[in-house]
Design goal:
By secondary structure, the chain is an all-alpha fold. Helices cover about 65% and strands about 0% of the residues. The chain has a single domain (about 1-145), classed as Uncharacterized conserved protein DUF2267 (Globin-like), CATH 1.10.490. The chain starts with a helix and ends in a 10-residue tail after the last helix.
Length: about 150
């Protein structure tokens, strides 16, 4: 039983670290709002990626974040055809009732992409960026070698 507890404890710590980092990046102190916003961007990204790439990205996430990422996923409906930033931001905005998300969706998306880039190996981020249209790929932070 100890090994299950250790796995659970480890994912709780890692998932909370991700939420704290995202909250700090956005200057937010409400973990519930941060989690909802993270979920919205992750779902939009997941639904925009080909299923195999979505799964490869998820493999790099803490268990709890991975669960949030896969919640409600229907891979047969992906990838969605959001090609522009506006179309992608509409996917991010979709789970929020009108007027409840008062944040710059570009800033939010960039913050989540930065979080992923900070925690996911560079090669996987390169693969994700490579399957996205240029307008969406440009929302990701540039790798250190490209700066």
């Amino acid at each position: 039983m100890t090994s299950i507890s250790q796995v659970w404890d480890k994912t709780l710590v890692k998932s909370n670290d991700w939420l704290r980092q995202l909250g700090a990046e956005l200057s937010w102190d409400n973990a519930d709002t941060t989690l909802l916003a993270l979920r919205a961007v992750l779902h939009a990204l997941r639904d925009r990626l080909p299923p195999d790439e979505a799964v490869e990205l998820a493999a790099q996430m803490p268990l709890l974040i991975k669960g949030v990422y896969f919640e409600g996923w229907n891979p047969s409906g992906t990838p969605m055809k959001a090609r522009s930033r506006e179309e992608f931001f509409a996917l991010v905005r979709r789970p929020f009732p009108a007027g409840t998300l008062e944040v710059d969706l570009g800033q939010l998306t960039r913050a989540v992409f930065k979080l992923l880039a900070d925690h996911v190996p560079e090669g996987e981020i390169r693969d994700v960026r490579g399957v996205l249209p240029t307008e969406l790929a440009e929302l990701w932070p540039q790798p250190a070698a490209a700066r």
